[in-house]
Design brief:
Blueprint (H helix, E strand, L loop, with lengths): L1 H31 L1 H24 L5 H5 L2 E4 L8 H14 L7 H4 L5 H6 L2 E4 L8
Antiparallel strand pairs: 1-2
Helix pairs in contact: 1-2
Length: 131
């Protein structure tokens, strides 16, 4: 489930990037030149991805994790906001490493992003309603 959740998040980012490359980058290239357009397109893709994930980050999830009922278990004794923790995991470590930090997860190990933040991904337990 973790790998599929990660796959959803990666696909989401590439869809955003593809749409921007097809529709926004050509317009920007005419206005500001190709190098600046490339930098703006990349920056815009990260901002859009971040904006889409933000509501999930505050709940210790990503869109992919939420789809499978997973969430990030924060480390015990660390006083930080859910948003900060997930931002460091998902953007700073995963995205900036081009997801190379996630490779150990494919073989059942902990990724660099989990070791660095002392977190783990667990299944959300659904409680049955009484009555």
């Amino acid at each position: 489930m973790r790998v599929l959740a990660q796959f959803i998040d990666i696909i989401l980012y590439f869809v955003i990037m593809a749409v921007l490359l097809l529709f926004v980058a050509p317009l920007l290239t005419r206005i500001v030149g190709s190098l600046t357009a490339a930098l703006l397109t990349f920056s815009l893709s990260v901002i859009i991805y971040f904006a889409m994930q933000y509501p999930f980050y505050t709940n210790l999830q990503t869109i992919g994790k939420a789809f499978f009922g997973l969430y990030i278990k924060p480390p015990v004794g660390i006083l930080t906001s859910n948003f900060t923790l997930v931002f460091i995991r998902e953007i700073f470590i995963k995205l900036m490493s081009l997801y190379i930090a996630c490779l150990p997860v494919l073989w059942g190990g902990k990724g660099v992003h989990e070791k660095a933040t002392k977190t783990e991904v667990i299944m959300k337990i659904k409680r049955k309603a009484n009555g």
